[in-house]
Amino acid sequence: MASPSPPVRPWADLQHDLLVVIMSRVGVPELLFGGASRACSAWQASARDPLVWRRVDLRDWAALTSARRRLAAGDGAAAAAGRGRIPLQAALCSVLEIVVRRAAGRMEILLLPEFADEEHLLFLAQRNPNLHYFSLQATCVTYDQFCKAIDKLQFLKGMAVDESLINHDVLSHVHQCCPDFLELKVFALYVDEEIASIICNSLPRLKKLEIPNSDMSCAAIMKFLDCLEELEYLDISGYETSAISSAVLQKASRLNIFIWNSKFELGEFTDCSNCGEHCINPQEPCKCVMEHRVMDWLAGPSQPS
């Protein structure tokens, strides 16, 4: 005789704290315009809990827009209102308004979409001054407005910004206004010793520095390792030219984490067995390998034995 099936309990009976943990793993599009916004009252309440909004990732704006359109499609009035295109800047402000209201001052991390600018950051800083970390990839930023936002973010611990903001005045202002600032990520194409010096002199207490996918000189890397005495985490992964020497590795041995993997070989460079030359880019092999390939081509296809 088959044993009776255990009773099925409804999802709504889950404890609120557990539902909050679940909702904190759901993306912002679903929280605002997806299933979470239209579920049972228990799920709606947990989705609106400020603890869910401690980390907000708005970088996937396309997904957010798509979810908003799906919601509007099911609501005739909303669909009619949504037929007119809303400018991106205004749309982001409206989303930030909702997010800030939901977070109730508890938002700690905000990752903004690529088109966001310093006005959005100032908008946020005025309403959520307890922010600990933000990501702003804008390449053309008004320094005055950016610094106004920083003035209000006295609890800021880190930020991810474009290389256009890496200058002495801006970073020194961050250092003066944010005593707990310890983490910096830079979106840059190239970093030389001069840029490294600006970072080191302006933010001497950095513990975590990330500059991925950037062409970086060996002198810049050495500058970071020599001058940032409290540095614990350095990520310079994804570069296309080798700047890692034995001296760099020796100095970096004091770090807790050092990520320097090449874009092509993940940290291990291929040496030609004949000439010993580094083959950093498989698409641009050393002269010896090129000659070998030419000879193979001249010889024609190999004959089966």
From TrEMBL:
Entry-linked InterPro entries: F-box-like_dom_sf, LRR_dom_sf
SUPFAM superfamilies registered for this protein in UniProt: F-box domain, RNI-like
Domain of life from the UniProt record: Eukaryota
Protein name according to UniProt: F-box domain-containing protein
Natural source organism: Oryza punctata (Red rice)
Higher taxonomy: Eukaryota, Viridiplantae, Streptophyta, Embryophyta, Tracheophyta
